[in-house]
Design goal:
With 418 residues, the chain is an alpha+beta fold. Among the domains are: 82 residues, no CATH class; 154 residues, Heat Shock Protein 90, CATH 3.30.565. 53% of the residues lie in helices and 18% in strands. Strand 4 and strand 5 form a beta hairpin. The longest helix is centred in the middle third of the chain and has 75 residues. The protein is rod-shaped and about 135 Å long. 27% of the residues are buried.
Length: 418
């Protein structure tokens, strides 16, 4: 029996390779959302249907009770032989009071005809017994009080409510389970499509990297040879810049695909060392653009992650800051930590950003209006940074004002040594 259950579970949830863990989580989350939505919809339908059924049943029950107690009080029944569940108290014209035999103790005194007002009333005798009471006056000046015991009706109503609750709960649970199973089957092709997409991006990026590197190298060789024609030289410079940008984009796409397959592959990474290394890499470009680039990272800050991915993310932030900072400006890379998180921020005093567009700028292929003509213009940089940071369990925030510079901050949980 256990083996059969395991085979069913394996069929419904087949093993997922490590590289598809993120896609598998997305598919499971989508299936869970569908199941919850279906359960909520069924719950609303069951609740409305149950309330409607209970309301109609209660209304019909009240009408039946009213008719029964009216007819009992109107006459046609001997006091000694009332309808089932009815107690009759009759006051004759001479004042004699007759009570149904075996009436509950004290009920006759409580239903004294001289003290009852004509028409429908109610009475609570305690011990979960309620009575529907009707008093009728007759032409011969006699008066009859009919009391119908409502306890059996109350029990019937309680059983109906319990039955509706059980049926509703079972229906909701069944809908959730069925919704989960159906949703799993429905969104499984989505998981396969995501896996194929990531595999295609990784394969295509890997295949493109080598020819692009060769193309970029040849373009550099042509640029270094130089030419007396200014237009040709300008074209060569643009060709080198374009091949470099294209190579960076391919590297970003490949790194994004690799992150999905290396979620469990973590090692110690020192953010302070990464900050100094990236600053050293961009120092020539900063000097050429007359921008002061510095690192404020006095002490090691260890995190668990993929060093090459973190370095690429920090490089994208520094590259973006340099591209938006004019001559005489400053770009500072600061590393700090608390007991729980490590922080690395890149601050510039350049063009700044619109705070309302901060979240939009981290989407793929988004481009701020001030980015035209500066650095990369394909919008993959900040999107890749966000993807890298999220893969490390951290957050990316952008803060700035137009004309007052920008601060891009990354926070990542620190690595606690066991």
């Amino acid at each position: 029996m256990i083996g059969g259950a395991r085979r069913i579970a394996a069929r419904l949830w087949p093993p997922v390779p490590a590289g598809a863990a993120g896609d598998h989580a997305l598919v499971r989350r989508a299936a869970l959302v569908i199941a919850v939505q279906l359960a909520v919809a069924v719950a609303l339908v069951v609740a409305v249907g149950g309330l409607l059924a209970l309301s109609l049943t209660t209304q019909a029950q009240h009408q039946a009770i009213d008719t029964e107690v009216r007819q009992a009080a109107a006459g046609g029944h001997e006091v000694t032989d009332p309808p089932p569940g009815v107690v009759l108290v009759e006051r004759a014209p001479d004042g004699t009071i007759t009570v149904t035999p075996h009436a509950p103790p004290g009920l006759a005194a409580a239903l004294n005809p001289d003290h009852m007002r004509p028409g429908r009333t109610g009475f609570d005798a305690g011990h979960e017994h309620r009575y529907a009471v009707y008093t009728a006056d007759h032409p011969d000046h006699s008066r009859t009080v009919a009391a119908l015991d409502l306890h059996p009706r109350d029990e019937e109503r309680d059983r109906l409510q319990a039955g509706l609750a059980v049926a509703g709960g079972f229906g909701i649970c069944a809908a959730a389970v069925i919704g989960w199973l159906v949703a799993r089957r429905a969104v499984r092709p989505l998981g396969s499509a995501l896996a194929l997409q990531r595999r295609f991006v990784a394969d295509a990026s890997h295949e493109l990297r080598t020819p692009l590197t060769i193309l970029h190298t040849r373009a550099q060789m042509l640029q270094q040879r130089g030419t007396s024609d200014p237009q040709v030289q300008s074209g060569l410079d643009k060709l080198v810049a374009g091949t470099r940008e294209l190579s960076d984009i391919v590297s970003d796409l490949l790194l994004s695909a690799e992150l999905q397959s290396r979620r469990g592959d973590r090692e110690q990474a020192d953010l302070a060392a990464l900050a100094h290394a990236v600053v050293d890499d961009f120092a020539p470009a900063a000097a050429r653009d007359e921008v002061r680039l510095a690192a404020d990272a006095p002490a090691p800050v260890q995190v668990a992650g993929v060093p090459v991915a973190l370095r690429r993310a920090l490089s994208a932030l520094v590259d973006n800051a340099l591209g938006h900072t004019g001559p005489g400006g400053t770009v500072t890379v600061t590393v700090s930590r608390t007991d729980q998180v490590a922080s690395i921020s890149v601050t510039d005093d350049g063009e700044g950003i619109d705070p309302d567009r901060a979240a939009e700028l981290t989407e793929r292929f988004a481009r701020g209006p001030a980015a035209a003509g500066h650095g990369r213009r394909f919008g993959l940089g900040l999107a890749l940074v966000r993807e890298v940071v999220h893969a490390h369990g951290g957050t990316l925030t952008l803060d700035g004002r137009p004309g007052l510079g920008t601060t891009a901050s990354i926070t990542i949980p620190v690595a606690h040594r066991s």
